[in-house]
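Section 3.1: Structural characterization of target chains.
Under the original work plan, the team committed to producing a structural model for every single-chain target entering the pipeline before any wet-lab resources were allocated. The record below documents one such target. The sequence was received from the expression subgroup and is listed exactly as submitted; it comprises 50 residues.
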Amino acid sequence: MLIKLTTGKISITTSSGEYITASGPMLIFLAKDQTIHITMEETHEQLNYN
């Protein structure tokens, strides 16, 4: 899975126990066939989903 974060902050917890925190701009690559939990933090910029 590919996540493109252009602005803002994101926290991801994967089913394999990984905890990832990133600030945009960022590309995040995750393995297939797993459950993820995503938390978005408030930002004063507009979030763009492509």
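The CA atoms of residues 34 and 41 lie 22 Å apart.
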